[in-house]
Design goal:
alpha/beta; 4 helices; 6 strands; six-stranded mixed beta sheet; 202 residues; Glutaredoxin
């Protein structure tokens, strides 16, 4: 009886060890699967972002950065573009940490945000509500971006960075992703890393 009991105990220990081993292996395998799956997702996202950044932007207007003033001024500035792509500006920037403004914002403060590397999304009364909403969500999810209405602009939807500007057809236009990928804190930025918070907010 003693030998039988010892045999049962050994068998139970082996079963317990076996089950524990299976559980541990399963957890390790599942963890590895999740890690690899997340890594694959990140790799795809990185590849998509790189492709967007490398893609040419049809209709992109580029302005000579050397001719764009960068002085802090208090007197009104008459900008040749609507919305402006750069130039002398107010010493206070508009908050541009994914900020969406329902009303028009001062050009002179928005230009300062462009100098810090922000992308400014603008729209007029011809823009569709669905496009406005979709672009608002993109801006809210993107540091160094801001959005506001500009009634005087020619295109219904426009994207502006320092010295760069394009009119897009809709929020789904692939040029939107390309513009953000290239110009949010892009090479055109006169003051990369400068703040987009603690500025002017309406």
């Amino acid at each position: 009886m003693r030998r039988a009991e010892q045999a049962r105990e050994r068998r139970n220990r082996l079963i317990t060890i076996g089950i524990s081993t299976v559980i541990v292996v399963g957890l390790v395998g599942f963890g590895s699967y999740l890690f690899i799956n997340e890594q694959n997702k990140q790799d795809k996202a990185d590849a998509k972002a790189k492709a967007a950044a490398d893609a040419p932007i049809k209709g992109l207007q580029e302005f000579d950065a050397k001719k764009l003033g960068r002085n802090h001024v208090t007197k009104p500035v008459s900008y040749p573009q609507t919305p402006p792509v750069g130039g002398d500006h107010n010493q206070a920037w508009m908050n541009c940490n994914g900020d969406v403004y329902d009303k028009a914002i001062p050009d002179m403060n928005a230009v300062h945000s462009l100098e810090h590397g922000a992308v400014w999304v603008t729209y007029n009364k011809q823009a569709k509500d669905a496009d406005i909403k979709a672009l608002q969500e993109k801006v809210k999810a993107t540091p160094y971006s801001l959005m506001s209405p500009v009634d005087g602009q020619k295109g219904a939807l426009m994207l502006t960075a320092w010295g760069k500007q394009v009119t897009v057809d809709s929020a789904k236009d692939p040029r939107v992703d390309s513009f953000f990928a290239k110009f949010v804190q892009g090479k055109q930025t006169p003051e990369p890393g400068a703040a987009c918070t603690n500025g002017l907010a309406l």
